[in-house]
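Fold this sequence, please.
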Amino acid sequence: MAGLPPAGRPPVDAAPRFARLALGAALAAVVAGAAVGAARRAEAHGSHGKLVRGVVTYQRFCARCHGASGRGDGPRAAEQLLRPVDLTRLAALHGEFDRRRVAASIDGESRATAHGEAELPVWGDATLRVPAGEAPLPAPLDELLDYLEHLQSRDGLK
């Protein structure tokens, strides 16, 4: 019969779909593995719960561009006009890990163009906004900053 694929072989159009599904499953496994590894490192540092919540926030909002390890090699990095920053080297690049400066970049306050305008960061989540003045940071942003700072201590000031 013309038009039917040989027995046991998927139709030609199914191959790209299967490849996308396989790639998605592999990516999910890598991200999950990175989260487990980060949780183990956090547990060793004694602040397990807060760092784990930071990892979860990171995976939700940051990993697509910055990568599971924070090195700027996420699955969407190639789509960006500018390569995402290697978040493991923030302290090395700036001499220290400045929480307010990093928070301002995440929030959009410092006009990190890849993160969108200050009025509407690319993720649009109010829990990652920097409050005015000296008010405490929202818990999700504070936990995310703890995780990013933890990435610095892992790699050291190179």
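The chain is about 50% helix and 5% strand. The two ends are 64 Å apart (CA to CA).
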